[in-house]
């Protein structure tokens, strides 16, 4: 009897521990937003259930041509009619909701949200609503991923609220357009699903800007953005496959430059000093243990994967990265001009850096590349991700290119904008097998994709774009 009581106490205290709460309980319920559980297709226990609406703190700010600037933003929510009637919201305009991704806030990295809002208000007389779920988005990646389900529901309630108080015709949803980046693109998918399931309303359009990959790729359509989430879904893939999803996610999927790497990204990293000290995970491990010259290669190449931090006193290039090879090789590379660190030394100091082993810290050893990617993202989150320009980092240039390309298609009247070519793969496209537009035709990437709504996979190279429409903003400038 006593033993059972003890077990019960242990059992209860296990579930009472904050961190285990969302994993231990089968579901969480948040009023009108509904319940969230770990039943299939949401069975991935690595993804936490959403935190409460109070914690996640999703906020929506309306901008129109009458109130364009940050100082005149009008906050809307899904229950305050006074705020709605006092605002400039007008149901006869198209309503465009914009949503950021992991570790961002309402400005977006490089202020992409603000720049997009400004460009949209020049382009048309729209209601532009910027979503700010920065508290929910600035958690560890597994928690922020879980929070997207709740933010999708909250955005769905807001849209229902706006429609309900303006005649409540279902087809008003046609005039709602959701643009989301990374995790924000996955939120768009949840909003679309929520509106259909609960209110029988279908969003007019979703644009997914490099929808997030970890925990979404190869999942059920209910878990990720897909073409069922709006009447028209177009997607721009820019950093496949680890950061942005490689899955077909819309009616029209664009793969500029093949969808992974882009001109101007990664070749000339302008790293900045990271000012925050971080706690190495393997405090007790000496770097030299990982640098043994003749270390036997383990049976699985993946077992080598590790995330490291490089600290550089002399070259302003601290960063977090990961490697699947021997760390020793990575260290060696920094001595040569093939790496930006080595190049810096040869160029600025006319020297080769000496022993750099002490400048590396192993942050985590991981079992696979995907594990490493997620861990890397956790560490970069700690370090202020805007400062990290490593190629595979969540906030890297390539990932953000989706926002840059999209903004350009809104803001510039190019006579010859980016045309996507139907093709089976980027290799075929690059070899010149897909120069014609076939029977279906060539859709325009970005804002104007809706003019044709051609379905399929479309390839293009962006390199000619700059000569047609010069860059107005410099990435990482
Ligand atoms: C709403 O927008 C429409 C179309 O732009 C316009 O005709 C109408 O006057 C606006 N309504 C209000 C109340 O401003
Ligand atoms: C590497 O670390 C050592 C010791 O902290 C430091 O003196 C040196 O400047 C660092 N090397 C570079 C290239 O920053």
From TrEMBL:
Subcellular location: Secreted
Keyword Metal-binding: yes
GO MF term set: metal ion binding; triacylglycerol lipase activity
GO process annotations (BP): lipid catabolic process
Alphabetical UniProt keywords: Calcium, Disulfide bond, Metal-binding, Secreted, Signal
All residue ranges annotated as the GIY-YIG domain in the record: 303-389
Tagged with keyword Nucleotide-binding: no
One Gene Ontology cellular component annotation held by this UniProt entry: extracellular space
PROSITE patterns named among the record's database cross-references: GIY_YIG (PS50164)
Annotated signal peptide: 1-20
Ranges for region Disordered: 331-350
Binding site for Ca(2+): 226, 229
Record-linked InterPro entries: AB_hydrolase_fold, GIY-YIG_endonuc, GIY-YIG_endonuc_sf, Lipase, Lipase_LIPH, Lipase_N, Lipase_panc, TAG_lipase
Family per similarity comment: Belongs to the AB hydrolase superfamily. Lipase family.
Annotated protein name in UniProt: Pancreatic lipase-related protein 2
């Amino acid at each position: 009897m006593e033993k059972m009581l003890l077990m019960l106490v242990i059992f209860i205290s296990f579930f009472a521990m904050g961190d285990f709460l969302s994993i231990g309980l089968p579901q969480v319920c948040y009023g009108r937003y509904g319940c969230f559980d770990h039943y299939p297709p949401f069975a991935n226990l690595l993804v936490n259930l959403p935190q409460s609406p109070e914690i996640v703190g999703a906020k929506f700010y309306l901008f129109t041509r009458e109130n364009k600037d940050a100082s005149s933003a009008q906050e809307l929510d899904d229950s305050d009619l006074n705020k709605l009637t006092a605002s400039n919201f007008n149901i006869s305009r198209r309503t465009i909701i914009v949503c950021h991704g992991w570790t961002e806030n309402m400005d977006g990295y490089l202020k992409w949200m603000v720049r997009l809002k400004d460009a949209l208000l020049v382009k048309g007389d729209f209601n532009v609503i910027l979503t700010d779920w920065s508290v929910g988005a600035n958690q560890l990646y597994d928690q922020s991923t879980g929070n997207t389900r709740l933010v999708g529901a909250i955005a769905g309630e807001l849209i229902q609220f706006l429609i309900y108080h303006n005649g409540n015709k279902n087809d008003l949803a046609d005039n709602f357009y959701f643009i989301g980046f990374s995790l924000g693109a996955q939120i768009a998918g949840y909003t679309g699903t929520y509106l259909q399931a609960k209110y029988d309303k279908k969003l007019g359009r979703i644009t997914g800007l490099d929808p997030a990959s970890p925990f979404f790729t190869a999942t059920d359509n209910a878990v990720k953005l897909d073409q069922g989430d709006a009447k028209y879904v177009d997607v721009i893939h820019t950093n496949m496959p680890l950061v942005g999803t490689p899955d077909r996610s819309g009616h029209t999927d664009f793969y500029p430059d093949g969808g992974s790497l882009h001109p101007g990204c990664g070749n000339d990293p302008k790293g900045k000093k990271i000012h925050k000290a971080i706690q190495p995970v393997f405090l007790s491990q000496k770097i030299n243990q990982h640098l043994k010259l003749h270390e036997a290669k383990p049976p699985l190449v993946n077992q080598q994967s590790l995330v490291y931090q490089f600290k550089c006193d002399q070259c302003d290039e601290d960063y977090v990265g990961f490697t699947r090879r021997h760390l020793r090789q990575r260290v060696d590379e920094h001595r040569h001009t093939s790496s930006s660190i080595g190049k810096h030394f040869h160029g600025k100091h006319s020297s080769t850096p000496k022993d750099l082993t002490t400048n590396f810290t192993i942050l985590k050893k991981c079992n696979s590349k995907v594990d490493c990617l997620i861990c890397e993202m956790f560490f970069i989150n700690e370090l202020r991700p805007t400062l990290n320009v490593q190629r595979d980092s969540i906030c890297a240039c390539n990932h953000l290119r989706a926002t840059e390309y999209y903004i350009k298609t809104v803001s510039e009247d190019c006579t010859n904008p980016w045309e996507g070519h139907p093709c089976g793969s980027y290799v075929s496209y690059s070899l010149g097998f897909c120069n014609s537009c076939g029977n279906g035709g060539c859709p325009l990437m970005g804002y104007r994709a809706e003019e044709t709504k051609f379905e399929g996979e479309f390839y293009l190279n962006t390199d000619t774009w700059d000569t047609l429409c010069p860059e107005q903003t410099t990435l990482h400038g």
